[in-house]
Structures
1.
Amino acid sequence: MNKILDFYFEYSSPYGYFASTGIEALAARHDLTIRWHPILLGPMFKAMGSAPLVNIPLKGEYSRRDFQRTAKLFGIPYTHPDPFPIATVSAARATLYAREQHPEKLATLVGKLYAGFFAQGRAINETSVVLDICAESGLNRSAAESALAEDSLKALLKSEVDHALSQGVFGSPFLIIDNEPFWGFDRFDHIEKWLQATA
Amino acid sequence: MNKILDFYFEYSSPYGYFASTGIEALAARHDLTIRWHPILLGPMFKAMGSAPLVNIPLKGEYSRRDFQRTAKLFGIPYTHPDPFPIATVSAARATLYAREQHPEKLATLVGKLYAGFFAQGRAINETSVVLDICAESGLNRSAAESALAEDSLKALLKSEVDHALSQGVFGSPFLIIDNEPFWGFDRFDHIEKWLQATA
């Protein structure tokens, strides 16, 4: 049986975006089954007494540079968005909708939302843009629009974030394989080493 | 002419220790000349409104696990010290003393201080232990003891930390090559890629 790879990601996270571009290849190399968990970092920052990376003195300036450089070194299209960071509630809800109702479109939607924001300058904080991207991913736009307005989907996102917190998730990307937590795009090579060592 | 690699490190930083075990090989591979900068993270945490990693909710617990795992994956001897973190003023001052007066012993001293704390359980927060390690590194113990008590060495450490802050240094390890800043042991592979791309 395949191992499970729980993949936690926030849409306003550049490193989450970088991870999303490599997660399926990682899973394929090691026969992992991905479970996709869109999260919101706001509640996690609150738990840690922290703030978005770019708002922290010293670290913020470095981070902006590291986003661009990492993208370039790994050959990932990247244009730093403005405004940044953004609210990603609609994008996260749409992702949960796809996961629950149309799982065959899920990976495509995640890829298009991330690329929309970080490579094409699309305002995925706006629900209308998220719905456009849903349609471009093969989902029915008006069905998605109805779903996003439902209390059950709002409640699902909230419980996903609470569950993530209870699992010790505090950043994006955050990956858990067999109870082993890995934080950051820069842990992909650690994951490879770890999987080889435990295989 | 060789490029300069400015290497900033705090002795109470596990990732600084991991970096120290690979820094000379990195420099040798790319004809870089290392300039060693022992720093204290306290003033940087203050500037960022941050705290030692292990004291941050969620992130702290993950970090303790990541220290052990990273050491294991990279084959670096590691026993998580207790107490941790510690004050490293004496270790940093001794390192500056070696750098200024006995540069041929510097890399050895850095290696022995780090291994003393992170592999051998030695209390390098204590000046007497730092002086023992100075002696084991080929320095004269009593000359080092006198130097550590001098105001000029205290002032040098303070100015080093201030200068590091002015360069945007906020963590350990922090490396600057040709004005390009890299934060973290997990940026070593980025440095390799970056050096290859700019060679």
2.
Amino acid sequence: MKKIINNPADVENEMIEGFVAAQKEKVKRLGNLNVILRKNLNPNKVALISGGGSGHEPAHFGYVGFGMLDCAVAGSIFTSPAALPVFKAIEEVKNKKGVLCIVKNYSGDVMTFETAIDMAKDEGINVEYVIVADDVATQNSEIGRRGVAGTIFVHKIAGALAETGADLKSVKEIAQRTIENVRSMGMAISPCTIPASGVASFELSEDEMEIGIGIHGEAGIKREKILNADEITKKILDEILNDLNYKNQEVAVMINGMGATPLMELLIVNNFVQKYLEKNEIKIYDTMIGNYMTSIEMSGFSITLLKLDEELKKYYDAAADTFALKK
Amino acid sequence: MKKIINNPADVENEMIEGFVAAQKEKVKRLGNLNVILRKNLNPNKVALISGGGSGHEPAHFGYVGFGMLDCAVAGSIFTSPAALPVFKAIEEVKNKKGVLCIVKNYSGDVMTFETAIDMAKDEGINVEYVIVADDVATQNSEIGRRGVAGTIFVHKIAGALAETGADLKSVKEIAQRTIENVRSMGMAISPCTIPASGVASFELSEDEMEIGIGIHGEAGIKREKILNADEITKKILDEILNDLNYKNQEVAVMINGMGATPLMELLIVNNFVQKYLEKNEIKIYDTMIGNYMTSIEMSGFSITLLKLDEELKKYYDAAADTFALKK
């Protein structure tokens, strides 16, 4: 394992310290918990919380700020946070408007958030949650699809509506509508290594790739011979387009790097995406390209398509001022 | 070589197509040249051009937009563009206010820009240039220090002053002042591979690192046993702090990923940077963390420190709206 770190046991703490130091005008840490909050919480808006295991940086703490999240809770790498810090986060951001938790669909994350939400409700806190499940690679999984990079669109759109002072019911509804209209799928040409284990999450030969990876270093649903960028991208787009009818619709596109993918490659992928969507009579409203939800230093990418309507477009375009996304 | 590309010969063209497609409201391409322009050029401001070899994405085309560059010219990977496209770029953006070229200090880039500028002057175009030379690792080199990530600060500050309608002399002066106050140094734990060659730019064992790398895949000035993040960061900071007196000054910090470095590691580096600068009585005005000037998929980072004064702070903070940097 070759990494620029200190003690593997300190990775989560040191990166959070490093993040808060860089963003100290905008965010703060809750005690010594791995909980990042907006420095100036606005009590007159629904508070949004997301979280999950670390290793997906800039998700989720990079999205704490105006127009997106109020709080992010980080577990250890690829491990759900415990219910207690999530409960403490809810307590910290609670206000008369209520709290919405945005949870990615993984058994651990769902259990953690449900437990914390039960604890909060016992204290009379008005808190709801939505579960993001956008990964079409896992459509046949027992626990349902995984939540992956589409989660960022949920942060963006629910976050923008929340800033208007909308009530909890409306913010939850638009988050849910975003979830229903978003689909993602990913691939990798190299794995990642959890610092504490020191072992690569899978092994691939020089001519192999994983299709349908998750964001926790897991191998994909299929191992195949590597193809060229256009062929790989077509394969992934076909899975997404077969899953939801985007024809004649406007979409927001996200080409997401998994952590170690050079921007050059994401741009080459995008070059095909633009032409292929056009050929399929899908109108591209906007395209985001970058590392939005990663798996440490995995090399690969995911594509996310969000079907937009006029209201979603409005909140997609609204101002955001966070470390990882500014509008 | 394992990459997500099509034909290696098409990499530059396809990535530029992919970039322009994603940013089509804001940028355009000049014919089929690797020249990216703002879509709506403002004839009432000094036009800023930068460029150099490809492989450093998002530099430089990611900085074309309000508050930064008007135009970027890309060569082949790690290869200076020819003088002709640079000349055509100058011709395209020229206006009554004049043109400033921001050139990184490499023999090829300097020769290209000087030739193009001579051609432009022969046509009566009012064009000047500055040379960025911020890399303290190469202070003893014959051609002088290399220009690396500090170039982004020159784009930002000269770009902001240019937006105010300032004259060419003033814009060149502030660019020069930024150059005089900026220092960088980098390291890598893994090399990169130029698609057309297919061969890694250097080889390192599992326990080695390169200190003092450039941005063209070259090895560093020293190969050493890998250290932990804090030790590596201290080593780099000491070189920078020995080179320019930052004591009791305010600085902008850039922790720049070389392409494949996970954000997690950049944040861990920043955690030490913040503490070490404070200990050295240097005041951090702002910190930027991300992939600003890369070497394809090299894994490593560079640190840049810009000593600020009140005027530089004003233009550092001014609005910018580009793919890679928004303020």
